[in-house]
Amino acid sequence: MKKIAVLTSGGDAPGLNACIRAVVRTAYFHNISVIGIKRGYKGLIEKDYCLLNPRSVGGIINKGGTILHSSREPRFKIPEYRKKAYENLKDLGTDTLIVIGGNGSFTAANIFAKEFPINVIGIPKTIDNDLYGTDYTIGFDTAVNNAVEAVDKIRDTTISHERIFVVEVMGRDSGFIALDVGIATGADITLIPEYPFPLHLVIEKLIDSYKKGKTFSIIILAEGVAKAQDLVPILEEKLKNYSIGGIRYSVLGHIQRGGSPTAFDRIIASRFGAFAIEKYLKGEKNFMVSYEKGQIKTKPLDISFGKIKKPDLEIFELTKKLTI
């Protein structure tokens, strides 16, 4: 009986459990057993694992987080620990490892696959959606919807008090979440790291909106641009001569990463997991699952190595057109 191992690494994302479930059930359908490595690469080093079967992944498709837990393991950057991880996989009787992760996880997986005779399969996961080589990563849709729901509620207070509200969303050095949230909530200004928007233009736009009779404004701020708590005092100083009902901020933080995944994330995660197993059975090695132009396909694992994915400039320009 063939045997594979699967782990989740890096930050958690809604839809991870749906993907694990699909990997396990598709594998068992084809008479392949599955070893779940706990806590990412940390578990690979420490032999922390469990056997997974169709029943052990029952009832998890709607749950956020990951039943395998996750971690960021700095020891995996050291060759001797990667060698130990390889030996542990051999002891488990498998030469195939499925890594459900993002940029950091894929970088480690690529190095691991080049150093040892291991078949590494990458499934893209990160709420940031910034992994090069795929249009979509598991968890992004849920994170955007979580943020949109929060901003919609904040708007009620913003309108009531005629304020300017700065909402900081996650995304590390990426503006994908901020961009989609900005469009979906009708934000007045969206600030993302990929396409800088000078501060003086932010001020000018807020003043122009005020002069046109708009009594409230919402700014969506990607965390990679600045901290909301640092931006607010600057805005207060620049706008002190205008009768604005105050400037407030909210940092949405990890609320965006938790909760039940959306239907889209459950479906795409399930498709990714099943697709990975089907391609493994066809003999493909060292590949990543990619979602491109509506199609799921494979790409070389190293295609994302050292590359940065940027949001579409046309979509960014759209945010400015829609906030006249």
In short:
The chain is α/β, with parallel strands linked by helices.
Could you walk me through the main structural features you see in this protein, from its secondary elements to its overall organization?
The protein is an alpha/beta fold. It has ten helices and eleven strands. A seven-stranded mixed β-sheet has the order 3-2-1-4-5-10-11, with helices on both faces. It starts with a strand and ends with a helix.
Whole-Å distance between the termini?
63 Å
Shape assignment: elongated
Order of H and E elements: EHEHEHEHEHEHEHEHEHEEH
DSSP summary, beta strand count: 11
Task: Let me know the average pLDDT.
Answer: 96
| Radius of gyration, taken over Cα atoms and rounded to an integer in Å | 22 Å
Biggest sheet, spatial arrangement of strands: 3-2-1-4-5-10-11
CATH architecture of the largest domain: 3-Layer(aba) Sandwich
Low-confidence stretches: none
Biggest sheet: strands, sense, closure? 7 strands, mixed
Classification by helices and strands: alpha/beta
CATH class of the largest domain: Alpha Beta
Query: Any idea how many domains?
Result: 2
Number of helices: 10
CATH topology of the largest domain: Rossmann fold
DSSP helix fraction? 40-55%
- What is the percentage of strand-forming residues? 15-25%
